[in-house]
């Protein structure tokens, strides 16, 4: 508000208001001549401001839309209609002040972000903590963030942290981050003081990049405003022609003046930019930074969407898929050995293995005598045993290859995954399959994008064609472009632009050229200093693909509101012009009518601030969502046990099959079935209330019943196995049951995880 009070627009409003009121008081006291002079003085500053704005617009080769207002005031003064001139001037000054206020209100979510810029850091020097300027921080510095302070630069946590990330994400839920996790600058320490290690200088950190983009966004001019100018190119000649015709036909110059008064195009000048900035503000509140109104306008018109695969459709991190073991060795044992040794490596696959073990609550040992061969693997001692992890070629030099190794390697290669082999005391004990898994929100986001009118969804990836087409089929994209180089991506986008407005979504440095070439480039994640974020028009500050759906909804509804404001304003103004040309609306009354039109269209434009970007469903508390997801992680060993037995069943001695099946049945009765029963009885009713509708969880409950049926059937068949063991047909039937149970449980857990993620209020 203080910026408004200090603005030129407010000063103009104050002068014209005082001039109008002063002139009316003088007229009432019988001093009409002085009143005319006061009204003229009050209107003159607005006349000067209009002249300057028209001159500047013409220099930029833009439509001088203010020319009608200039003619109306000048014409009124020339005809001695001093009161009318004063009212028109007040109308324009109040409209400009209202626009200023609307802009400030609409920008507050974006400008509030700038207030969170860190100014200093607490660095450990010479055995003590010293406050230093932010520019003095370099990567590797040991920093302390006290309670309530902003994280000064991007870094890695040395301890647990409770963070308020609302400035970047728009979510008010506090986030608990473990040691070793990266933390972006600009978030607030909402808990106890913690230490961190700087990973970037201040100028290269997340917040600095975001601030640069926000400043760029605030300076951008929307093509919607230029669209209003194009309407003005038609509107101005029509108004001048109608004013001139009414004068020539009737000989009454006041009719021409009345036409010019109601033709003052404030709806075009004010409403469109207010709507666009309001839409940008709404996006910012949901963690989507739109750098310019132009990007929002193009996003609203897009129908073709390109995705980079890694880090966009997928999470960009290696996750555990499966653990294969030697007979007699458990999956948890193999994972524990691998994760204990992996703690000594900084490789991304090693970090994924360690994370998977911690998710399963395995107790890791401290590795000793670790030797790492970069890019191949590492060897060390775990609990007195020699353990090796890494590629097959590396581990097979210190451990005897297992019979299942070749088949496992073929499976991993066909699925585009990574393999970590594990050797223990010279024996290849098992192998771990790791892969960059599809984001939980990706399938839902793609479905919603199709509902919003995106007609082509094209996946770009450097993966082999067979792997890429498998993922594309899983997601239901319309086209797959595999084995793509950055140059190939660029060519594909250039070709698609001839068919419509193109969006490109990516996250890596190699995506920057494609992001810059697309009509709308969208960068994933909050790394504002990355090349992809700098090249993009829009940055998703929250690392979730479904925020793109929200941005698209806001963009399309904002454009619709802007067009409503333009069309409504023009129709009302033209109707008033016709009435004035027929002599039924005097200049002074026309000014009042035009003011009402202005207020109406601006109020309509501000509706963009209230656009709902998400469906009106409830949400899970963050702790509840995490607890439900953790329950599926705990089921991992049971699911692996089912798959492992299904694979091994034909090779097992007939007399041992019954005991192996009994072990699986015990796990199902002890863990899987009770878990699904609890979900059906306790979790699903709460989810149904959040989702709304009569029975939204019916299909998921149906899957529970199928799991119960298969588990019960497996138990009954196991009890009927003869003492000498099952025959070949029975073994085949057991295999069919186990594979079916494995598939339906995995699919069901994936569906539930997607649902929990969609309802997670803190995600």
From TrEMBL:
Subcellular location: Cell membrane; Membrane
Chief location: membrane
Any Pfam family: Hemerythrin
Membrane-spanning residues: 7-27, 33-55, 67-93, 192-211, 231-250, 256-277, 566-585
Catalysed reactions listed for this entry: Zn(2+)(in) + ATP + H2O = Zn(2+)(out) + ADP + phosphate + H(+)
Keyword hit for RNA-binding: no
Keyword set, alphabetical order: ATP-binding, Cell membrane, Membrane, Metal-binding, Nucleotide-binding, Translocase, Transmembrane, Transmembrane helix
Domain P-type ATPase A, chain residue ranges per copy: 117-215
EC numbers on record: 7.2.2.12
Domain Hemerythrin-like per the UniProt entry, residue ranges: 625-757
Family: Belongs to the cation transport ATPase (P-type) (TC 3.A.3) family. Type IB subfamily.
NCBIfam families reported for this sequence: ATPase-IB_hvy, ATPase_P-type
Protein name per Swiss-Prot or TrEMBL: P-type Zn(2+) transporter
UniProt organism field: Paraburkholderia tropica
Organism placement in taxonomy: Bacteria, Pseudomonadati, Pseudomonadota, Betaproteobacteria, Burkholderiales
């Amino acid at each position: 508000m203080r910026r408004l009070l200090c603005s030129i627009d407010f000063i103009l409003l104050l002068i014209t208001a005082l001039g109008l009121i002063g002139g009316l008081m003088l007229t009432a006291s019988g001093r009409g001549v002085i009143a005319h002079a006061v009204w003229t003085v009050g209107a003159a500053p607005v006349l000067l401001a209009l002249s300057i704005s028209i001159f500047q617009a013409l220099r930029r080769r833009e439509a001088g839309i203010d020319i009608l207002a200039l003619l109306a005031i000048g014409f009124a003064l020339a005809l001695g209609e001093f009161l009318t001139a004063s009212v028109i001037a007040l109308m324009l000054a109040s409209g400009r002040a209202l626009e200023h206020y609307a802009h400030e209100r609409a920008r507050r979510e974006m400008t509030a972000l700038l207030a969170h810029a860190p100014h200093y850091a607490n660095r450990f020097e010479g055995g003590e903590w010293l406050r230093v300027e932010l520019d003095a921080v370099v990567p590797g510095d040991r920093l302390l963030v006290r309670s309530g302070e902003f994280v000064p630069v991007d870094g890695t946590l040395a301890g647990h942290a409770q963070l308020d990330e609302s400035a970047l994400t728009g979510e008010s839920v506090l986030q608990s981050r473990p040691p070793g996790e990266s933390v972006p600058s600009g978030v607030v320490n909402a808990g106890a003081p913690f230490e961190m290690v700087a990973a970037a200088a201040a100028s290269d950190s997340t917040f600095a990049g975001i601030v640069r983009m926000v400043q760029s966004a605030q300076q951008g001019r929307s093509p919607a405003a230029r669209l209003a100018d194009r309407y003005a190119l038609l509107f101005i000649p029509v108004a001048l022609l109608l004013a001139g015709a009414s004068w020539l036909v009737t000989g009454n110059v006041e009719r021409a003046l009345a036409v010019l008064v109601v033709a003052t195009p404030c709806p075009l000048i004010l409403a469109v930019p207010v709507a666009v900035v309001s839409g940008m503000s709404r996006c910012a509140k949901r963690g989507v930074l739109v750098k310019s109104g132009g990007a929002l306008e193009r996003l609203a018109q897009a129908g073709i969407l390109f995705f980079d695969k890694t880090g966009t459709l997928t999470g960009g991190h290696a996750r555990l898929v499966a653990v294969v073991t030697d007979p007699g060795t458990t999956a948890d044992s193999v994972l524990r050995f691998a994760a204990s040794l992996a703690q000594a490596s900084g490789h991304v696959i090693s970090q994924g293995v360690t994370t998977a073990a911690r998710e399963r609550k395995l107790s890791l040992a401290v590795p000793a005598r670790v030797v790492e061969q970069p890019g191949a693997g590492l060897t060390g001692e775990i609990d007195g045993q020699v353990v090796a992890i890494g590629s097959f070629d590396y581990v097979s030099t210190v451990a005897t290859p297992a019979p299942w190794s070749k088949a496992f390697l073929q499976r991993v290669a066909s699925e585009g995954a990574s393999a970590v082999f594990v050797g223990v005391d010279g024996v290849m004990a098992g192998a771990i399959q790791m892969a960059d898994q599809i984001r939980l929100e990706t399938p839902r986001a793609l479905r919603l994008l199709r509902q919003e009118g995106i007609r082509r969804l094209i996946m770009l990836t450097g993966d082999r064609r067979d792997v890429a087409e498998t993922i594309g089929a899983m997601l239901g994209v319309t086209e797959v472009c595999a084995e793509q180089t950055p140059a190939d991506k660029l060519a594909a986008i250039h070709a698609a632009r001839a068919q419509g407005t193109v969006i490109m979504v990516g996250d890596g440095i190699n995506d920057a050229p494609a992001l810059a070439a697309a009509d709308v480039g969208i960068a994933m994640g909050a790394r504002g200093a990355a090349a992809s974020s700098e090249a993009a028009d829009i940055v998703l500050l929250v690392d979730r693909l479904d925020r793109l759906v929200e941005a698209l909804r806001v963009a399309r509804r904002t454009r619709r509101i802007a067009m409503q404001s333009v069309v409504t304003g023009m129709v009302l103004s033209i109707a008033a012009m016709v009435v004035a040309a027929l002599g039924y609306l005097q200049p002074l009354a026309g000014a009042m009518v035009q003011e009402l039109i202005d207020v109406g269209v601006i109020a309509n434009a501000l509706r963009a601030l209230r656009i709902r970007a998400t469906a009106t469903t409830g949400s899970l508390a963050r702790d509840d969502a995490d607890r439900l997801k953790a329950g599926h992680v705990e089921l991992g060993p049971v699911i692996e046990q089912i798959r492992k037995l299904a694979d091994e069943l034909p090779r097992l001695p007939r007399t041992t099959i019954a005991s192996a099946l009994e072990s699986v049945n015990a796990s199902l009765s002890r863990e899987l079935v009770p878990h699904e029963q609890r979900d059906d009885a306790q979790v699903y009713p709460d989810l149904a209330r959040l989702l709304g509708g009569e029975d939204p969880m019916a299909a998921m409950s149906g899957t529970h019943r199928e799991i119960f049926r298969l588990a019960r059937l497996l138990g009954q068949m196991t009890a009927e196995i003869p003492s000498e063991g099952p025959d070949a047909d029975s073994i085949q039937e057991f295999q069919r049951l186990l594979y079916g149970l494995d598939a339906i449980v995995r699919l069901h857990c994936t569906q539930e995880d997607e649902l929990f993620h969609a309802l997670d209020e803190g995600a």
